[in-house]
């Protein structure tokens, strides 16, 4: 029986072509399958939502931590201001100064301006007062005839000068009570212990406040030295 080889070849070629075409069609159908696209879109959306939720949670946690910290700091500051004001109102400047210097972390903050000024002024007063009392004791004991308290008296008047300068400024931090109290402490000591006349004290204080150049300041200091000598004579009588 005769077989046509060419016909067989053509049939195989046709079958191969049809097979390849079917594969291409199948591939395209898979690519265009809307179900696959939907699944992928859902996965992406879910992933995005998870990332968004985590981001929001982290942001809210950070905000709450910062808010809580700030709130706690404000609460602490308000408590400290109230404590300082209580001691200031009671005239307990020693306790107030100790509290301010040891507890306040931001001493230059405006809310502490009054307490800072009075604490520093009280510290200056206590330093000058300590020097003065020590020198006064030595003079009274008479162990050394060359000892006097001219320099110490100058330090006391420097405290009075500071008080008068704050008064001249108009008590810009509402510190009038503290300044007045400390000034009175100095004047009372000069008058009651050193036996210096109040009128003389105020005259020297006024001259000190008005002195604007070095020559005028030196003249005030010389007056204070004379005042110290006169005081010593009265004390030793």
Description:
With 237 residues, the protein is mostly helical. It is 82% helix and 0% strand. The radius of gyration is 45 Å and the shape is rod-shaped. The termini are far apart.
- Radius of gyration using CA atoms only: 45 Å
In terms of DSSP E residues, the strand content is under 5%
Low-confidence stretches: none
Q: How far apart lie the N and C ends?
A: 165 Å
Classify the secondary structure makeup into a structural class: mainly alpha
User: For the report, how would you describe the main beta sheet?
Assistant: none
Shape by Cα distribution:
rod-shaped
What is the average of the pLDDT values?
Answer: 85
The portion of residues assigned to helices is over 70%
How many β-strand stretches? Answer: 0
Tally of helical runs: 8
Q: Would you list the SSEs in sequence order as H and E?
A: HHHHHHHH
Summarize the structure.
This protein has 237 residues and is mostly helical. The chain has helices spanning 5-31, 34-89, 93-103, 113-141, 150-168, 176-192, 198-210, 214-236. It is built from 8 helices and no strands.
SSE order and pairing:
Blueprint: H1 5-31, H2 34-89, H3 93-103, H4 113-141, H5 150-168, H6 176-192, H7 198-210, H8 214-236
Label this structure with key terms.
single chain; 237 residues; mainly alpha; 82% helix; rod-shaped
């Amino acid at each position: 029986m005769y077989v046509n080889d060419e016909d067989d070849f053509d049939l195989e070629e046709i079958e191969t072509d049809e097979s390849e075409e079917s594969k291409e069609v199948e591939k395209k159908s898979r690519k265009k399958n809307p179900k696959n696209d939907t699944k992928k879109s859902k996965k992406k959306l879910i992933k995005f939502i998870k990332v968004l939720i985590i981001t929001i949670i982290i942001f809210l946690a950070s905000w709450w931590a910062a808010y809580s910290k700030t709130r706690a700091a404000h609460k602490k500051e308000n408590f400290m201001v109230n404590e300082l004001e209580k001691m200031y109102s009671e005239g307990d400047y020693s306790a107030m100064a100790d509290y301010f210097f040891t507890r306040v972390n931001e001493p230059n903050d405006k809310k502490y301006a009054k307490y800072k000024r009075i604490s520093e002024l009280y510290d200056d007063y206590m330093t000058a007062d300590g020097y003065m009392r020590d020198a006064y004791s030595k003079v009274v004991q008479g162990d050394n005839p060359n000892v006097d308290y001219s320099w110490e008296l100058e330090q006391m008047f420097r405290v009075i000068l500071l008080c008068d300068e704050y008064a001249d400024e108009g008590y810009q931090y509402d510190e009038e009570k503290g300044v007045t109290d400390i000034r009175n402490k100095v004047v009372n000591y000069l008058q009651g212990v050193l036996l210096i006349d109040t009128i003389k004290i105020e005259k020297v204080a006024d001259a000190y406040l008005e002195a604007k150049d070095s020559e005028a300041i030196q003249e005030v200091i010389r007056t204070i030295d004379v005042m110290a000598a006169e005081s010593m004579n009265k004390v030793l009588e």
